[in-house]
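Entry 14. Two folds queued back to back today. First construct below, sequence then structure tokens.
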Amino acid sequence: MKLSSTSSVVDPWRALRDATDRHRHEHGCWAFPHAEGSVLGVLAAAVGARRILEPGTALGYTALWLACGAKKARVDTLERDPLHVAMARAAIEKAGHAARINVHEGEFAGVLPALQPNYDLAFFDGHASTPGDLAELRRLLRPGGLLVSANQQLARPGSASYRSRLSDADAWLSAPLGNDMTLSVWLSITPVGLMSAR
């Protein structure tokens, strides 16, 4: 299923999305603004999120949408590129959301273990996902929390296993959303060993 265009949706951060696209071409990097920012805002609002996790900041476009959707939420977003961190922090400050959005600098493997559990929503948009990523995201989500996995069309060692684990009905209630996203609700009872990373 392909998502219909959201071009009719008012996008308060369209300029940042366009600036991210320009930066990517100039910098030769992987700073992609997710195409469905408004969908993320709606999902954050629908689950009444108070704590949101986003591994993969780019320049802050989706972090702003998540904060917009969940007006009382705090967003922890992660980015390894120091230039992107600086640009994201500046954009978030300019938008007036610096008090609620914390941009953590570093590799996911270094930052995620330091975070405390019980996030209501996690949006993984950093790269093609692996079972190790999923194990850490599961640790950080509360039971019944929502995981939004992007880049599901990308191939990377372990990414097929990540997708396979999300289809395990004993652990996750999952459904595709568009061509590259999967929505998954963490179920509280987990078979032993399900989340061990290979």
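Second construct, same run, same settings:
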Amino acid sequence: MAQKPKVAVVVDSAASLPADVLGRPQMHEVPMQLVWDGRTYLDGRDLAPGEFYQRLRAASSLPTTSGPPPDGFLRGFARASAEAESVLCLTVSSRFSSSHDAACLALARAERDLPGVPIAVVDTETAAGGEGLIAIEAWRAATRGANLEEAERRAREMIPRVT
């Protein structure tokens, strides 16, 4: 039996990672929520980017966003922990979204629901491409065999380097 990788990375969809990155081992995404005309969509799941922009051009109202709920992060942690020994979760800035708070609530639940799985949650202090770059660097460290502490350190080193 092959040994599990040490770390898998979980990001919220605010990181705007391309599909080819999200399809790789040790990288997992939890979708943000888009609320549009009273209906809630999961970012990238219920509305593909092309469909989103097509609707946006014809829309009479703009959508709002909401961070993933804690259960969404908990499911992401469970998927990641099935693949790796530990989980590094990177979120959009807590100044922009409730995503970080939801991930922290999920972390508290994971102590009960995923006992023995080390999980770290990091506020990237940025969004979109900046968050994505931090996630990719942490993922690269993880795929090179970094442990949770090393992958988290790499993510934190990147935070002041992106804007």
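Quick look at the second one. The longest strand covers residues 7-12. Strands lie at 7-12, 27-30, 33-36, 39-42, 64-66, 86-91, 119-123.
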